């Protein structure tokens, strides 16, 4: 049997064409793949490539569903996969690692929402919730592998205020829905309903390779914002006293007796010179 003629191309060109075909199977191709690659034993080159294309998109969907398990549950598998396919088409993988695959998912949902140009009070609640939920899940995923304090000493409970700073693997965030609660309900194997709109503040951190979320009050959130921005604890306490119209003595007493030790144990702080 005569061997089919194949167009000769450079390896570099062939690799780029193969990559582009994987990332965008619908893109027009000026040269047929069958004129460039040899066929398989029972199928032609185009059919062989299609196997890679289908496997690739299935792998990317799986990665996204593992990174956003609560969003996957909330939307359902079919709808989540539709969103994933559209996202991957608009924001194809641009990193050597699939770890970065979902880092634009939340922004993409916000940018492509059909009610984006409407006033806030006319927007769909479920879209707001999905955007918040993906933001939360993306931050959990980021902190899982972010630079942390593992392997170093943690401060003692008796450490003076001036010796404490927020640890590096910590973030504070505000959400319009109780997304942390919803996420942990899913991870616990329960089936929560769509939660009502409710402003929630949270601290997300990793200590000893364990990621955790802590709800905080609006006053605590403001206090942590000031620490994050580089203010000393003494200055933040003074600002909180002014903001709440309470005496500095009362605010400082609450900090020392109700908050400080619990936050040190949880891993909010490291030593200033660590």
Explain the layout of strands and helices.
Elements (H helix, E strand, L loop, with lengths): L10 H13 L21 H23 L1 H7 L1 H14 L14 H8 L12 H20 L19 E3 L3 E6 L3 H9 L12 E8 L2 E7 L1 H11 L4 H12 L3 H19 L2 E3 L3
Antiparallel strand pairs: 1-5, 2-3, 3-4
Task: Based on the model shown, name its key terms.
single chain, 274 residues, mainly alpha, Outer Surface Protein A, domain 3, 3-stranded antiparallel beta sheet, two-stranded antiparallel ribbon, 5 strands, 50% helix
Short description:
The protein is mainly alpha-helical and 274 residues long.
Task: Assign the CATH topology of one domain.
Answer: Outer Surface Protein A, domain 3
Number of helices: 10
Net shape? elongated
Question: How far is the first residue's CA from the last residue's CA?
Answer: 73 Å
Structural class: mainly alpha
Main sheet overview = 3 strands, antiparallel
The amount of beta strand, in percent, is 5-15%
Order of helices and strands: HHHHHHEEHEEHHHE
**CATH architectural group of one domain:** Alpha-Beta Complex
Round the Cα radius of gyration to an integer and report it.
25 Å
Give the strand line-up of the largest sheet.
Answer: 2-3-4
For the record, the CATH class of one domain is: Alpha Beta
Helix fraction bin: 40-55%
Q: How many E-type strands? A: 5
Average the pLDDT over all residues and give the rounded result: 89
User: Spans of 5+ residues with little confidence (pLDDT < 50)?
Assistant: none
Pfam families: DUF2063 (PF09836)
Protein name: Putative DNA-binding domain-containing protein
Organism: Cellvibrio mixtus
InterPro entries: DUF2063, DUF2063_N_sf
């Amino acid at each position: 049997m005569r061997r089919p003629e194949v167009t000769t191309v450079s390896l570099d060109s062939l690799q780029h064409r193969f990559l582009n075909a994987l990332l965008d199977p619908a893109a027009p191709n000026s040269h047929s793949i069958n004129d460039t690659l040899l066929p398989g034993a029972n199928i032609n080159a185009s059919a062989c490539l299609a196997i890679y294309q289908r496997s690739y998109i299935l792998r990317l969907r799986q990665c996204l569903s593992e990174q956003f398990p609560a969003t996957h549950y909330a939307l359902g598998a079919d709808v989540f996969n539709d969103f994933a396919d559209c996202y991957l088409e608009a924001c194809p993988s641009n990193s050597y690692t699939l770890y970065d695959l979902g880092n634009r998912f939340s922004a993409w949902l916000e940018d492509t929402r059909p009610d984006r140009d409407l006033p806030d009070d006319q927007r769909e609640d479920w879209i707001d919730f999905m955007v918040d939920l993906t933001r939360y899940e993306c931050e959990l995923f980021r902190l899982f592998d972010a630079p942390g304090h593992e392997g170093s000493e943690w401060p003692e409970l008796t450490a003076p205020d001036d010796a404490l700073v927020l640890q590096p693997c910590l973030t504070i965030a505000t959400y319009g829905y109780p997304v942390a609660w919803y996420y942990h309900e899913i991870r616990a194997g329960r089936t929560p309903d769509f939660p009502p709109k409710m402003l929630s503040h949270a601290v997300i951190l990793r200590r000893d390779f364990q990621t955790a979320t802590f709800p905080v009050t609006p006053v605590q959130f403001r206090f942590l914002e000031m620490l994050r921005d580089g203010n000393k604890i003494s200055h933040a306490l003074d600002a909180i006293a002014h903001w709440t119209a309470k005496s500095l003595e009362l605010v400082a007493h609450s900090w020392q007796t109700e908050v400080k030790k619990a936050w040190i144990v949880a891993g909010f702080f490291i030593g200033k010179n660590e």
